[in-house]
Amino acid sequence: MWVEIPRRPLSQWLFKSRGFSEITEDMEQLERLFLRETGISELPSSIEHMRGLKSLELINCENLVALPNSIGNLTCLTSLHVRNCPKLHNLPDNLRSLQCCLTRLDLGGCNLMEEEIPSDLWCLSSLEFLNISENHMRCIPAGITQLCKLGTLIMNHCPMLEVIGELPSSLWWIEAHGCPCLETETSSSLLWSSLLKHLKSPIQQRFNIIIPGSSGIPEWVSHQRMGCEVSVELPMNWYEDNNLLGFVLFFHHVPLDDDECVRTSGFIPQCKLAISHGDQSKRLDDIDFYPHCKTYWIQGLSYGSRRYDSGSTSDPALWVTYFPQIGIPSKYRSRKWNNFKAHFDNPVGNASFTCGDNASFKVKSCGIHLIYAQDQKHGPQPSRKRPANREDHSPKKKISSFQRIKGFFNL
């Protein structure tokens, strides 16, 4: 009986019994239920009596094959984690009932196909976190765009994933590494379109994106240069143009040979922004990158930090940051200030660093793209106004920034 279970570990009791006791009375005081590495094959429909349950976690339950529809009656449930349950083939059909309460859903490692995901999942209007990693989906269902509050989407190590379509504009963090079947051109177009749609929302703060495995800056970026500095002449009356949303800055870094650099002391790579008029230049912002990397200098000592999972730490990567037009202080919002500059560096003055234990990098090229409201409607395209004397040192060969998506994007 449930009144006896607290006297011993619940997971141990369930593993031995390979069953889950029927719940005959309402249990409004129980808020969290953790079932890890148990032998259960299913939960009883009477779980609906746990009316106060806020968090249900089933981890590494190798025999679990189904979840009862009665889970939809747990109207206090905010977190549902069903992870590494490889035999699971039946999700509740009435997830819609949880649309006002469920904020976190983890279905990682359950070998699910896209047709096994009920359409009700896309009705979870309160969902903020979704993990569908290590499943067998070929595409992300279009219904995901209905998740209007979704901020984090994790879809790592999906071996059959071929296409990532349109995504919700509410996303600020995406992970999609270890997906070898992603189509390059299709995914590139759709993902950049999703990013531009994200920029159309009323964003008044910057954000960073890291794209490991990238072969370079997208071809449509209007202002590109080799090296670690790029500038753009601002359109006349830019400060009065509400159609100008902001600036997307690109820095493509490539591996260095081990003998090309020596480690440096603890510095974090930065994107330094400035606005200028003639010989006058004023600092706007220094954007620190926290790429889970180490930084390097040509001479010096090492700096240690966390690492990101890029699939291969020796791959090139593209770092992207967005800076909104509203971020330029009012004292510089005049016709006088007509040049916007971005410089990628670390505080010791050299744009070299390392990701992982052995691979070191330098910035090969950089770019700026002005984002207008019209860009949101028509997809990636050059800015509507370019300076007549534009100096373009971008690589001549065609490049795609999503050759293979193996890392994470921090929107």
From TrEMBL:
<keyword id="KW-0611">Plant defense</keyword>
<keyword id="KW-0677">Repeat</keyword>
<feature type="domain" description="Disease resistance protein RPS4B/Roq1-like leucine-rich repeats">
    <location>
        <begin position="19"/>
        <end position="183"/>
    </location>
</feature>
<dbReference type="Pfam" id="PF20160">
    <property type="entry name" value="C-JID"/>
</dbReference>
<dbReference type="InterPro" id="IPR058546">
    <property type="entry name" value="RPS4B/Roq1-like_LRR"/>
</dbReference>
<feature type="region of interest" description="Disordered">
    <location>
        <begin position="375"/>
        <end position="399"/>
    </location>
</feature>
<dbReference type="InterPro" id="IPR032675">
    <property type="entry name" value="LRR_dom_sf"/>
</dbReference>
<protein>
    <submittedName>
        <fullName>Disease resistance protein RPS4</fullName>
    </submittedName>
</protein>
<dbReference type="InterPro" id="IPR003591">
    <property type="entry name" value="Leu-rich_rpt_typical-subtyp"/>
</dbReference>
<dbReference type="InterPro" id="IPR045344">
    <property type="entry name" value="C-JID"/>
</dbReference>
<keyword id="KW-0433">Leucine-rich repeat</keyword>
<feature type="domain" description="C-JID">
    <location>
        <begin position="215"/>
        <end position="376"/>
    </location>
</feature>
<dbReference type="Pfam" id="PF23286">
    <property type="entry name" value="LRR_13"/>
</dbReference>
<dbReference type="InterPro" id="IPR050216">
    <property type="entry name" value="LRR_domain-containing"/>
</dbReference>
